[in-house]
Amino acid sequence: MMKKKRLISILSICLLLALLAPVSAAEVGYVGYKLPRLKGNNYTGYHQKATNDDYIRNIVENVSNTSTVNFWAQDHSGDISSKYNQKVGSVAKIIFNTNKDKGNSIRMAMENGKLSTGYAFVAGRVNFR
Question: Where is the secretion signal located (predicted)?
Answer without folding.
Answer: 1-25
